[in-house]
Structures are given as structure tokens and as C-alpha cells.
Amino acid sequence: MNYLQSYSIDNRLSESAIDNLVTFLISKEQEILDSYPFMSDFGTSLTAEHVSTRSNAYNIFKYIDEYPDLNIIFEFIKTSYWNYIDNVFLPKNFTNDQLDPSVSAWLNVIRESETIGMHKHSDQHPSGLWSFVSGTISLGVSNTSTFYNDGSSTHEVKNAAGELTLFPPYFTHWTNIHTSSEPRVTLGFDVLFRHDHAPEGIDFTNNLKRFS
Q1: Does residue 98 carry a pLDDT above 90?
Q2: How far is CA 46 from the centre of its chain?
Q3: Which of 62, 83, 164, 169 sits CB 3.0–4.6 Å from 137 for a disulfide?
Q4: Going by C-beta distance under 8 Å and a sequence separation of 6 or more, which residues neighbour residue 28?
């Protein structure tokens, strides 16, 4: 499963800085729930009480000015993406065009006894043209794993704070049941190869944040 790659934030954010970021993000959970309508469970089986179900309605990086450490996360996603494009992604899948990436990013919070169900971000397969790369960055985690299936095999990634995982949008993925009293906090995202790959007429088109 060479299309599944993980990257570490290393010393770009300290453990305490990540903890503080988690506290900030949780403080925004109710605001997001109140400010944006339920969009869909997107196959996760989560409910309208979960911020994940608003993922197309806003971009978590709207809070960069309010909490500058989010810009470190944004830059980390950028560098990881370019590493993925240069070393993992097959050039034949994207030809005769110049990359102009934009990211859609959202908050995920699940609590004790909850899980994110099996879902995928696209039905596009390697035989066709991918239009984006999907990813997750773990922030507040405790003995949690995410599972990825490429259609033939399943791989477990044990989540760690500051670890980012990139994968093709057609990979089915899900989490184990969360057993800690502390929330599991992650950011999910899709990086579109070009801003104009965004489907027209849906809310997140205006919420994409360009890498350039």
C-alpha cells in the first residue's frame, strides 16, 4: 500500500503547543455546530451532533488569524503534500496541467464509545484521474487507530499526536472505538490538485484555501 504515507510534524510544534491547539479547537466545536448546518454524515455514521458533518460548510483554517499555530499545521500539510506528489503520486495520473493545490479542511471530534464509520472521499481509482489527495492529522489522540483499505488489503495506522497521513481519496477508512474519556481530535482534509477541480454549486468551493 505505497499510496498510504505518514509524516511527522517533529519539532515544528511542541507537545504542549499541540495540547493547547487541541484545547482551542475543542473550544470552537459548539461554534461550528451552531454556525453551520448539518451537511451529511458522508458515510461515517456520525450524527448532527458531530462537527464532522459540517465538513463542506467551512474551512478550519479560517481560524489562523485567531490562533496562529494553525498556520504551522497548514504549512505542514503543504510540505507533506509536495513530498507525496514528488515521491509517491504517479505522474501519469496527472498530465498536461500545472498543479495549483487548494485544501478543504475540517475538525473531527469523537468521544468515548464513539467511532468514525467506514467511508471514502471519492470513488476515483488509480485507473482514472485523481483530482485530490486526502489526509488526516492527529492532534488529541489516546490509544486510537485508523484503518485504511485500498480494495484488497487493510492497513492499521496507530495515531500519534502530530502525525499526518496522506492517502488516495478512494481508500475506505474508519477508526476503532474510542475508549478514552479525553476526546479524539483530528483534522481531516482534501487537497485538490487545482482549485477549478472543485465541483460547482457546493458550499466548500468558496472555502478552499490555496497553497500559493
Answers
A1: no
A2: 16
A3: 164
A4: 63, 107
> Is residue 22 within 8 Å of 139, Cβ to Cβ?
yes
The DSSP call for residue 118 is S
Number of neighbouring beta carbons within 10 Å of residue 38: 13
Query: Which runs of E-coded beta strand occur in the chain?
Result: 5-8, 102-110, 132-140, 145-149, 154-158, 163-167, 172-175, 184-192, 209-210
**Residues 12/72, Cβ–Cβ less than 8 Å:** yes
Place of cell 474519556: 181
Positive or negative CA dihedral for 178, 181, 183, 184?
negative
Cell of 28: 470552537
What share of the chain in percent tops pLDDT 70? Answer: 86
φ, ψ (nearest 5 deg) of residue 179: -110, 0
